[in-house]
Amino acid sequence: MKIKILLILLIWCSFSVVAAEKDFLEVLKAADKIKTSQPSEFLDQMDSLEKNKQDFSEKERDYFNYLLVWSLILKGHSENAIETFKVVIQESNYPEVKYKAGMSLANMYAAKGSHLDAITQLNLSLELESMLENQEERNRGYVIAGIIYNLIGDNQSAKEYGLKIQNNTTDPRTYCFAENILVEAEFKIGNLNVADERVKNSIKVCSSINEVIPKNVMLSFIATQYVNFGESKKAVNLLLENLQEVESTEYQYLIGTYYSRLAEGYWELEELENAEKFAKKAINLQVEQSEWAVSSYNVLYKIFREKKLYDQSLFYHEKFYKLSASLADTEQSKRMAHELVKQQTNEKQREIELLNKQNEVLKLEQDLSKEEASNNRLMVILLIFILTSLAFWTYRVKRNQIKLKRQSETDLLTGVSSRQHFYFMCRKTLEHAKKTNQEVTFVLFDMDGFKSVNDNYGHLVGDWVLKKAVSVCIPCWRQNDIAGRLGGEEFALMLPTCNMEKAKEIAEKCRKAIEAVDTSDSGHKFPLSASFGITTTRLSGYELSKVIGDADKTMYQAKAAGKNQVCCVEISSD
Questions:
Q1: Distance between CA 455 and CA 563 in Å, rounded?
Q2: Which distant-in-sequence residues (6+ apart) come within 8 Å of 458 by Cβ?
Q3: What is the pTM of this model?
């Protein structure tokens, strides 16, 4: 099933190379056209071509090597596809083949969540478009660009590519995918009008050529809008009408979207059994990193809360909360990757401009050498200006890079380290402590009753609690202590060259500071406390996972003992 999902993401890599040679090249082109629509026939053709590859021209060989990667993917051996596509790109001398392989590679990066690599490769491939003779081939590359830009949240760029395709294509299939890109971009921007005749026409275009997936993706956006605007009955009817067709595609992301939207619709209609059925069907697809999985967990949480089955309700709420946090991290990663590539692209463009200016300066220097000394001074002034400009731009680029790095290392809500950066710093600290035989203590603490604060007063008050808790704890920490937010209401503190007694003293100060917080500034009055678990490398060793695990167990002992307590690991668990 994973391979089928990957093939759906890559389906638009089926390009057509303009043939300079005949015979084998024509056969290769024919095989290329059917590789996703008729995979069995494609593999048979590749087996036949394998027997004649010694007679290929250089271009035919490059084209065959590109298609060979696809045959490996279709046979279920996609693990080496990325590296093999890189080899094809590096060794081929033909822009058409490099373009096709580059776009396939960009899509594979996007499929596996490597957003920075996907955007970087996409830009490299788009640089080749001016060397292509076939406009439809460019258009299919634009389709991949539109898909990737919608994926990373740059919906305006996706719209631009969708419109560019529509203005330059005569192929109905390409036009259908362009419509899908535009509808998705408008939906994510918030401008989608389900009553717009243009949206209905987009669906008709794809339906007329039996492009089931893009058609139903657009229908899922319409259903989502219906739910958002309180027309859940319309949403349910629309989804049920097309559900069998969607399930026949075996495309898990689309099926999961339909299931979750049905669950949302039935919840709004107060049909709890149907809502529960479709929410569980979505979760059973076992694709955790998806928006619809988050939505399904949320529906199940609300259903079991309504049924007063609080253990199950809490279970699904914890799933919902953790997955929401994980997806938020992923979205931040996408944005950071996009910003970094834009920064690198701008820097590269400035370097090119600077080189052009330097070349101009060199030419000017040669001309001025024949003139008066007074003119030479003009050249020096110009050179100083250019160097000053270079220094200025270098400073700005470096400043922006430092800013981006700091953002990726810091939890934006509380100001302490993000989970990834905190783990990185902890590992470095533990490695150093192990080499120098120093003791390090680790404190894990969790805000007590935080879920009830969110449920009773809203997430804005919950955010206020987290920021306030950190702000009152900071004066209790030492200057070289490392603090981080691990997710939700859970925080951790690593204390280098610190024994258990001192760590317990620091944790106790933090506990009292949190307990003493006056919550009336939030607009509500409620008690605030946290439970602390402490361990030390003397008992848990220097492996971060073991240290965190021991501290986590101890923290839950504190919660089980009545909360608002500090508990310490007493024995080493092997």
A1: 19
A2: none
A3: 0.54
